[in-house]
Amino acid sequence: MEIPYGVKERPDTGLNNAKLGIWLFLASEVMLFGGLFSAYIFLRTGVDDWPMGSKYLDVKMATLNTLFLITSSVTMVMSWASLKLNDFKKFKLYAGSTLLLACGFLVIKYFEYSSKFSYSYYPSTDNFLGIYFTMTGLHVIHVIGGIAVIAFLLFPGAKMWETDPERFTSRIEVTGLYWHFVDLVWIFLFPVLYLL
Amino acid sequence: MKPEEVKHHVKIYINVFVALLFLTVVTVGISYIDIGVGPGIALGLLVASVKGSLVACYFMHLIDEKKTILWTLFATVISFMILIFVPLSTMFSNAGY
Amino acid sequence: MSDNHTKETFFTKYIWSIDHKVIGIQYGITALLWLLVGFGLMMVMRYQLAYPDTQIPFIGWIFGEDKLLLPEKYNSLGAMHGTIMIFLGVVPLAFGAFGNYLVPLQIGAIDMAFPRLNAASYWTYFLGSIIMVVGFFVPGGAANSGWTSYPPLADVATAGQTVWLLGMVMLITSSLLGSVNIMVTVIQLRAEGMTWFRLPIFVWTQFITAFLLLLAFPPLEAAGILQLMDRLAGTSFFLPTGLVVSGEVLTNAGGGSPLLWQHLFWFLAHPEVYVLILPAFGIISEIIANNTRKPLSGYKSLVYAMTFLGFMSFVVWAHHMYLTGMGTTMGAFFQTTTMIISIPSVVILTALLLSLWGGSIRFNTPMLFALAFLPMFGIGGLTGLPLGLAAADIHLHDTYYVIGHFHYVVAPGTLFALFAGVYFWFPKVTGKSLNESLGKLHFYFSFIFMNGVFMPMFIQGLAGVSRRLADGGQAYAHAADVIYLNEIMSWSAWLLGMAQLFFIANVVLTLFKARTGEINPWNATTIDWTETTSPPLGHGNFEKIPVVYRGPYEYSVPGSKIDFTPQTEKG
User: In sequence order, what E strands does C175-327 have?
Assistant: First the structure.
């Protein structure tokens, strides 16, 4: 017996299980990052001298990373649209670009972190750097998770396109929602940590 | 979803992408203009919110999402607001003591 | 999920099972064992409180050659008692076990929406619980900063605290997976005709509980990560500048705030109270409707009150923080919300009480526990009112009064409801009914000794005995008049432990009996009773997916031949 509405939409809610599930998961993620943002504001308003981000951080690198993530978000949604148009080659192209851009994000982040360490800027240096490493670190973990899922769907998981294309498309859509959320978090992290 | 609809969507995605790129330049640009910390934060968060809404509405299709999801997110946003602002106000209400 | 019965091995059937019923039973057994462990810790603590600084009998060797429970070990036991009881015992039992087992059955679904995620959720919980007790074996012992883990104390505590935080992160992840699963199941997998207002109250309570877990737990995960950073990476999120520990100024950067932890912690921990109590309301509602043989009074008001309760639970948390120097404006705000949240609780209790009126009550064991729940929860709730008002709280804060208050909510409250649920659904899960006489002995002795443990706490608390004292208040002159109560409470606690032997014996003896397989022994109306065998089929629950035609509590319908009309009966 199969669980109903795994791919097909339930008539009265208009949703399938996977999509509702991922949105609920994202709701909890909002609260997770919300807790950290709340901590950031609480710590910042609690002291008299909070350093400007540009004192420690490299705005150029972060801007480049922002462009990477935004582009990867577009390619992600385009890969889903390609599947909807039945164009599997284009899907591979777009999803592959997403993967590359995501890895590029990690490479730049690596250089950013190591340059901080080379100046002896550690999480323990002050609370600005502490919250910077915590928030971006948690975000990086989310990026790595996204990379794992996209890589799976692009290589071993792609066989499903032959056997059950609808379910495969739904998986890409759900992964896309998660990936856009990771992008969304960065869109707020970037100005909050680097610019303001 | 019909193929024409998808193609129409693709056009929207490209437009949103261009808007996001533009807003990224804007947000970095204004950080170099000295308008004071308070207004700077307000403006920076405003731009970020616009960008975030674009991603949520168009890439994540919230603009025409089902009611169940919208209600869930509405509840989430309210608890998010409580989480952000209430601890802060307990700190500021100390000032009057 | 899997169709091929042939491939099923012992491992896939009982260990890595993706059947919601097996996972429910796994949750149930694990959680009951943890409740026993948590209770055991408390019995040791009660010996130290009744007879301070004397050797612990029987098991004293655990604490070293002198067989004494030193204050730092007492603190460890206290912190772990709270943690184990709440996060490893009551929540997994109420939400993991009862929710997993019953929600799909009551809404007419063949399984949870994500069976594999469900198994992952259980095993994450299992792993988290193991990590928690590993703390006992690290240098310095298990976490000893209270179950609330307030910094700066928790930031500078021994290694056990790090283990506690890691365990918490696992447990939070587990309950997130579980709550997503329950919510999607209730929204998506209701059988045909099972509209929202035909859901049994139990399903409503699980749904609201899932929502609270989904939104309130992540901020604690964030706080846990921040405290881990403080302990492992040397940050100072919760450490203010110039903090002196053991006579030396800490070298940390400083600039942090201990209050930040309290906000993030109580943002979870107040909704957590409703996570503990809502499933109890659900179980009690089912049992009262069934055993009064009449519909619940005010089904809709119950649903609305519970929803409102869930929502309000997000805006009352700082009533745990009146003594932190919070300003009067916000103090007034939180006093107001706290008084408001008592209204839906009263609505719920009143509706349940009114449901008894005019019913032909059957006094079986589950019903006795359910009836006891009402006044016990009432005492727990009413004694909370003075704590919700800042002026009274200044006197009562951190005294035994607080301990008495929340134990009345959770122990004779939620735990009685959970026992009622075990007695009620045992025939469904195993196909065998528990013995009534042993059940009644279990109930009466538990009822007497529960009150023997917790009622004197109010008296001690009003006299000002602090909750954290390892010697039970002997060093305090002003407590001299009330410390004789320590002995009464301790003996009650040990006898309460003895009373549970009736329960354990009952379960063991019943499991050896032959299966009767009676489908609906209580003559109930909901799908779980009327449409499934006892125990339900291994895969898919139902021979035929049920269709629902009516509300959940159609008992004694005028003109009907029998006094219950199943939800699946046409008409």
Answer: 244-245, 248-249
